[in-house]
Amino acid sequence: MSLLKRVWLSIIYRPIQSLLLFLFTLLLANVMAGSYTILQTTTTIKQEIKDQFGARVTVQYPAFQSSNNVSLFFF
Amino acid sequence: MGAKATVKSSINHAFTYPDRELAGEVYQDYKALLDQLIQSPEVKYADYSIYIETFIHTDHLVYRDDSSILNEPERLDILNVFTGVNRADFKELVSNEITIEAGRTFTEQEINLGLPVLLINGSTYEYSNQRSIEVGDVIRFTIEFSDARTNELIHTEPYDLEVVGLFQSGPSINFNFDSASQIDLNLFIPNQTMIQLAERIEEIMMTYDDVTFWNNQLDIFIGVPTFELKNVEAIDSFTEQVNQLLESITLDREHYQLVTSADAYDDIAIPMESLLNTSSIILMGAIGFGIVMISLIVLWFLRDRRFELAVLLALGERKQRLMMQVTIELVVIAWLAVSGSILTGHYIVTHLSENMLETFVNQDQPVLADSDDTDEVVHEAVAQAEQAVINPLALDTDEIIASYQIKFGARFYGVLYSLCLLIILVAVILPMSYLLRLNPRKIML
Q1: In chain A, what are the domain boundaries?
Q2: What would the pLDDT profile of A15-41 be if each residue is shown by its tens digit?
């Protein structure tokens, strides 16, 4: 009797055992799929927001700041 | 995040620098710093505005009747409306806050040499004889100098600017205002032109030694500058460069504030980071739990099958083949289960990710600069700078969703299958050691 045939018979002759394993793995796979999705989605959103924020920098002198984004100086 | 547009409020000075002599020096330092930073190799785009405040007006312009400007003054003072720009594609133009309706923007030559040229909003202003402004027109302004003690007008000087283009405010600006916004009133001229005008005014003030001018005969401002770097990674080295350049500044060095989009990003990233942590803990937990549970289940079943295994061994079957048999059984069941989970998982996953995307995308604007800085002025200034740093129109919801959808697919299932295979392979180690110690004689006799 070949190995594969024995595997097959072993699975179908013990339906309760196979079903239990099947259900457990199914549940596990779903939990993993869910958490992996959250992980992937969040990483993507994070990167996207980071990219869209871009690399913008400003250097300013806040002591001169008035209420309109303008710094005040006198020549 | 939703798109957001900001409207510049009209210019009201909250306060002025206490020492006006020093203020001039700080202005020079600040401008030198910005001009040096613009040359930095990391900078992709940089612009800043110089504003001046002086007694300047024109008799030739009025607000158009249909420009929806309330409280029309008798004389149009041009205080506060000149906005300097540092490049032809200046930031209001690039961000679509304004669009050129007729004519053109400035040329490099006009920007560099400070030629007397002007961009004006043709639907806000018209000539006092109701004629529309056209490209090529020269508008005459008048600079006035008065003696502060006698309030007597002692000198007037004409100042001509040529209209090279007419602009209109972009669609993002007038979203809930009936009246024209500040940007409609702006008269854009090159920064260099602004500086030359300020120098000319200063020159005239010098010639009147005995006259006391008003304190605000000439004030010059620098708006919050914007630097766009080539990539996010350049932020660190640019920050270092800024700090190096600040070393050489002696006056009020500690007042300079550097605000980067990375700072602003960090503020809104906290909930995302915690979600990332939670989901990776769940994923790791599921893997660990799966390994332990499958291990125990298989061990339990193997103990039930010990007679079968003993018979096979007694018949001369090698232990390796038995191990392989058990492993293949498990892999076959797991393969079926993962395939089954694709049906249910696909539903869960699309639902989950759509919900998450929507939650993120529809989040309100982040609250920025919530530091416990006691100096309110500095605090407010930093908040404004952070607003300037975040490109409000750039966060595009559709783009986020589109980029997400491409990445989701074959790779996801590949990861799911290989993770399950990994769990099975690790989980069979314990049952295998049981199988190895199996002695058929002990079991059957």
Answers
A1: 3-64
A2: 988 999 999 999 999 888 888 888 887
